[in-house]
Write a structure and sequence with these properties.
There is one protein chain. By secondary structure, the protein is α/β, with parallel strands linked by helices. Helices cover about 40% and strands about 20% of the residues. The protein has a five-stranded parallel sheet, sandwiched between helices.
Length: about 160
C-alpha cells in the first residue's frame, strides 16, 4: 500500500531514496526521509540511503545546506525575519520537519557518492561509505534494533510511500 495506516509508531524507520532517478541527488532523497515522519516515534531513528550519483543538488541548495549545517533554527529564524528566498530552500524546510522530530544524531544517511566532508554538512548523521558496505552496515543497524526489541518500519521506496 502506498499510504499504510500507522497503528503504532516505530523506534526505527528504514528507507531509501527510491532508486534512480529519485535518488540521484541528496535533495531528492530528502523526500523519502520526510515520508517517514508519521511512522517514527519522537526521538526515534531514521536510517536512509541513496546513490546521490549527481551529488547534493543545485549549487544554491548545496550552499544553503552548508551555510545552515547544524543550524536549522537559525535558518527558520532567517527566513522569517529577512523574507529571503533561495532556490530549493523548500527541501531544507522539509528536512527540518524530520530533524525537529528525531534530531540530527538520529537521522542516519548512507551513500557512496558524497564525500564525508560534504555529507557531514547536510544536517544528517553522515555515513559516506563504499557501495559494497552500505547493505551490511544498514543490516547491522536493523539487527541491533531487533536484539533490543525495537519496533521497525521499512519503506523500501521511501518517496512512494506516505504512511498516515
Amino acid at each position: 500500500a502506498c499510504c499504510p495506516i500507522v497503528s503504532e509508531k516505530a523506534d526505527l524507520a528504514v528507507t531509501s531514496g527510491g532508486g534512480y532517478p529519485l535518488d540521484a541527488t541528496f535533495y531528492q532523497c530528502v523526500k523519502g526521509l520526510v515520508n517517514c515522519i508519521p511512522a517514527v516515534k519522537e526521538l526515534g531513528q531514521i536510517v536512509a540511503f541513496g546513490s546521490c550519483l549527481e551529488g547534493v543538488g543545485s549549487k544554491e541548495y548545496a550552499a544553503l545546506m552548508e551555510k545552515y549545517s547544524g543550524k536549522c533554527d537559525q535558518f527558520i529564524a532567517d527566513i522569517k525575519e529577512n523574507h529571503f528566498f533561495i532556490k530549493d530552500q523548500w527541501q531544507l524546510q522539509m528536512q527540518i520537519r524530520v530533524l525537529k522530530k528525531i534530531g540530527q544524531q538520529n537521522l542516519h544517511f548512507y551513500t557512496s557518492n558524497i564525500p564525508t566532508e560534504t555529507l557531514s554538512k547536510l544536517s544528517v548523521n553522515a555515513h559516506s561509505v563504499s557501495s559494497s558496505e552500505i547493505e551490511s552496515l544498514i543490516q547491522s543497524r536493523i539487527n541491533k534494533a531487533v536484539e533490543e526489541k525495537k519496533r521497525i518500519s521499512v519503506f523500501p521506496e521511501g518517496p512512494y510511500c506516505s504512511p498516515v
